[in-house]
Amino acid sequence: MKEAEEKPVKAGGRLCCICNKRRAALKRPKTLEQICRECFYEVFEEEIHHVIVENQLFKPGERIAIGASGGKDSTVLACVLSELNRRHNYGLDLFLLSVDEGITGYRDDSLETVKRNEIQYGLRLKIVSYKDLYGWTMDEIVKTIGLKNNCTFCGVFRRQALDRGAALLKVDKLATGHNADDIAETVLLNILRGDIARLSRCTSIITGEDGPIPRCKPFKYTYEKEIMFTYAYFKRLDYFSTECIYSPNAYRGFARGFIKDLERIRPRAILDIIQSGENFRISTSTKMPEQGTCERCGYISSQKWCKACVLLEGLNRGLPKLGIGRSRGLNNDSPMRRLSFCELQGPSLNAHCNGEVMEVIASPSLLEGERKEAQEQLHTVLCDDGDLALERQIVGIEVPNPRPPRGHVGSERSEKP
Ligand code: SF4
């Protein structure tokens, strides 16, 4: 995402409040302390060291992949982890792992930055691409689906691509550059979307311990301003700061703007939102998804097919909307076989199964032509199960005329790059 060029806030002519010798060069965004550069580098790096030790993020001898996009967070992470690994003898074998989504004019340029980081920090680099893994580049996907929902495809594919790259590198863990601002933003987004499953795990500093490759966030308590406008700026690190050409992300952008406004009034707000997220207790009656594996590719999934396989199937069949939103899409094994009827409910086409209503295709506004397409998609999904009786049942469905929309906003999901 593009960042406004901003310089660290100068601290005037005072002495550094830590060493009391050198002139203060900046006011820390997180604590508002006035300190010199040397003391800032030290407290910044040692705070991250403290987070790593306190949360036991790494064990000696582990192989760790750093998710590297060429952006400010992952570049600072590569720089700081290399330094701490040397200084505190972590005994880690560090790698850079990048994903090439196939976005011309954006990712190709940022990967050049990662290649320079490979030399600058002496870390081996592995690049995995969407084209190799899925047969599609983001350029091709956007040509097919347009600029709506593109980040859903990209986010789902990236998550899996990183796991696949990590497996190729045979690493024990993946460290990502998610910072405190990102996590606060995600807490807020999950509340706004009512996504309890994600809310319960988005503040965890280590996730996926029951999955193929655990992930950790050493910057969980590190402010974006300190990473970019202070550390990266003073150290003159080589990072890439251009916005993705396909970035709409209006909803996430709103949450981000709101958090930045709060931070201006009260810098601690970011940490307080994270703490609130940590302290949420999920009601025992809330049904959480059960984790299994995708029948098609073997990746972890709470459904019959993982989200990436559903999205890919839609793309390959020329039905790219399959799997968008809160869709069961192709994951319809037993409930769909008991489907009784489907109907247009406001802007969505709903399937009714044994009293449970499942939103099959969520869209902000299903227009006349889209209703037909939606019905065909549902038809295709159901026919794929080879249930001919069901096929006859569905073909005979009369879709009522749409009622006026009731302000339903569908199930927009955009992923942070
Ligand atoms: Fe992918 Fe991020 Fe670009 Fe969306 S904004 S297409 S998630 S890189």
TrEMBL record:
Record keywords, A-Z: Cytoplasm, RNA-binding, Transferase, tRNA processing, tRNA-binding
Domain of life from the UniProt record: Eukaryota
One of the protein's GO biological processes: protein urmylation
Family: Belongs to the TtcA family. CTU1/NCS6/ATPBD3 subfamily.
Name assigned to this protein: Cytoplasmic tRNA 2-thiolation protein 1
Protein localization: Cytoplasm
Region annotated Disordered, chain positions: 397-417
PANTHER family: ATPASES OF THE PP SUPERFAMILY-RELATED, CYTOPLASMIC TRNA 2-THIOLATION PROTEIN 1
MF GO annotations: nucleotidyltransferase activity; tRNA binding
Main location as per UniProt: cytoplasm
Every tRNA(Ile)-lysidine/2-thiocytidine synthase N-terminal domain range: 64-244
Function: Plays a central role in 2-thiolation of mcm(5)S(2)U at tRNA wobble positions of tRNA(Lys), tRNA(Glu) and tRNA(Gln). Directly binds tRNAs and probably acts by catalyzing adenylation of tRNAs, an intermediate required for 2-thiolation. It is unclear whether it acts as a sulfurtransferase that transfers sulfur from thiocarboxylated URM1 onto the uridine of tRNAs at wobble position.
Major enzyme class: transferase
Family matches, as SUPFAM superfamilies: Adenine nucleotide alpha hydrolases-like (SSF52402)
Pathway: tRNA modification; 5-methoxycarbonylmethyl-2-thiouridine-tRNA biosynthesis
EC number: 2.7.7.-
Gene Ontology CC entries for this record: cytosolic tRNA wobble base thiouridylase complex; mitochondrion
All residue ranges annotated as the Cytoplasmic tRNA 2-thiolation protein 1 C-terminal domain in the record: 292-322
InterPro entries attached to this UniProt entry: CTU1-like_ATP-bd, CTU1_C, Ncs6/Tuc1/Ctu1, Rossmann-like_a/b/a_fold, TilS/TtcA_N
